[in-house]
Design goal:
Layout (H helix, E strand, L loop, with lengths): L2 E9 L2 E8 L2 E6 L2 E2 L6 H12 L4 E3 L2 E2 L23 E5 L4 E5 L3 E2 L2 E4 L3 H15 L4 E12 L2 E10 L4 E7 L9 H12 L3 E4 L2 E2 L10 E3 L2 E3 L5 E2 L3 E3 L3 H14 L7 H12 L3 E4 L2 E2 L9 E3 L5 E3 L5 E2 L3 E3 L3 H15 L1 E8 L3 E6 L7 E5 L1 H11 L3 E4 L2 E2 L7 E3 L4 E4 L4 E2 L3 E3 L3 H14 L1
Helix pairs in contact: 1-2, 3-5
Length: 429
């Protein structure tokens, strides 16, 4: 399941994002996933403190279902009728109060001035308000099978984006894995960091490292600044120096494999499958899996066999993934906009009231089923799909190729139904 950014706003000079990753709600501030923030209330407090570090907080328990564009489940939703707390302000006290639906008790923030109060109130309304969309067009008499319906097409007011993960530019790595690797090796010998340099994963020359008594100096080649470690005994220092030289030897095997195993162990993970991770591994297919989503699978790209680690919870497993990406220089970036268009179909035949379809992919499935079609291949129909199709036979329709990931095909009972389905897509999309 991909990750989605369901909220993105700036406040007090910082950027605040809410991300849903495999159903897990995560809070991101200035690009960093804040694993120390585990609730909406904590996220609200962090936002309030960017405006006023001394803001007085009375913390109620705000449910994750109160978040706009989220109502439980694995991904974003269009929650126009979802959980909606009440947000009010008291200008005399410079206070913002949040209570009612989805809030246990009352969340309250007291500021020193009205400007901060107003800014926070706007932020809270954006974070917790109901999803909205703006009407683009209304079309009546749209044919679906034997019946005609009215279709109202709207565009979601908030952008929901799928998150893509890719390597950062050289030099922008937050915390290179080699530097962390040295730290984990030092922990095996009880080392204390006395000079904090930055060890390069490509240029570090381990043979230059030297020892003076209980202190080890990693040298200058491939080390930004100066990195030194002190140990309780000369034996520990000698053991650390030998381990570093062995790990970074020119003919060493996959040191990244060893690093990941050490890092997983330090993060509370237990290795359950032992594959061989290449030094060029990029975490392209890393994911959580298992019935409780507590197992991390490193994927098959640049991995020989299967490499898996089990953690105590999904949150712990995801934190390992997030931090490993940081060490490997993998960062999150906005990808494609998803579920941008909202379709409201209303009529008399087979629909009680109206039906709301979220996203082009869902609308296509609705139309195909109304025309009596069977989906034979399920592609990913994106928001930029323009309704174009190809007829593979009189009764088989293939969508795209523009705006369709993979292949999407539909089979119909008659040529007339296939043609009707194609015309419906062309009319609406």
């Amino acid at each position: 399941m991909p990750a989605f950014n369901i909220f993105d706003a700036d406040l007090g000079g910082s950027n605040f994002v809410v991300r849903v990753t495999d159903g897990l709600v995560q809070y991101v501030i200035d690009g960093d996933v804040r694993h120390d923030i585990t609730s909406v209330s904590g996220f609200l407090t962090a936002a309030a403190q960017t405006l006023d570090a001394g803001v007085a907080i009375s913390s109620g328990n705000v449910s994750t279902n109160a978040l706009e564009n989220y109502e439980g489940g694995n991904g974003p939703v269009y929650d126009a009728f979802g959980t909606n707390p009440s947000i009010s302000s008291d200008d005399g006290a410079n206070r913002v109060s949040i209570g009612g639906s989805g809030v246990g008790g009352s969340y309250r923030a007291d500021f020193d001035n009205m400007a901060d109060q107003d800014a926070f109130e706007g932020f809270a309304n954006d974070l917790l308000g109901r999803a909205t969309a703006s009407l683009i067009s209304t079309q009546v008499g749209v044919q679906f099978g034997d019946f005609k319906f009215k279709v109202e097409t709207s565009e979601r007011d908030d952008d929901i984006t799928q998150v893509k993960f890719s390597l950062t530019e050289t030099g922008n790595i937050k915390n290179g894995w080699a530097d962390k690797y040295v730290e984990l090796i030092a922990a095996d010998f009880g080392g204390t960091l006395t000079g904090n340099g930055n060890v390069s994963e490509t240029n570090f020359t381990a043979n230059q490292a030297s020892r003076t008594g209980t202190e080890v100096n990693l040298g200058s080649s491939g080390v930004g600044g100066k990195e030194t470690w002190d140990f309780a005994s000369e034996a520990d220092a000698i053991g650390f120096l030998a381990a570093v030289k062995d790990a970074f030897a020119t003919n060493a095997g996959s040191r990244l494999d060893d690093f990941i195993e050490k890092f997983a162990d330090a993060s509370g993970g237990t290795q359950i499958r032992d594959g061989n991770v290449s030094n060029s591994y990029e975490a392209r297919q890393i994911k959580v899996t298992g019935p409780d989503k507590s197992i991390v699978d490193l994927g098959s790209h640049k991995v020989g066999g299967k490499e898996q680690f089990e953690f105590g919870s999904q949150a712990d497993a995801q934190q390992f993934i997030d931090e490993l990406r940081d060490h490997l220089g993998i960062t999150a970036q906005d990808g494609k906009v998803v579920d941008e268009f909202i379709f409201k179909v209303s009529g008399t035949a087979g629909i009680s009231g109206s039906e709301t379809l979220v996203g082009v992919d869902e609308f296509v499935e609705f139309a195909g089923e109304r025309w009596g079609g069977t989906q034979t291949r399920d592609g990913s129909v994106s928001e930029n799909f323009d309704g174009s199709v190809q007829f593979l036979s009189d009764t088989e329709v293939k969508l795209g190729p523009r705006g369709v990931g993979g292949q999407e095909r539909w089979e119909f009972d008659t040529a007339e139904d296939a043609q009707g389905f194609a015309e419906t897509l062309d009319t609406i999309l």
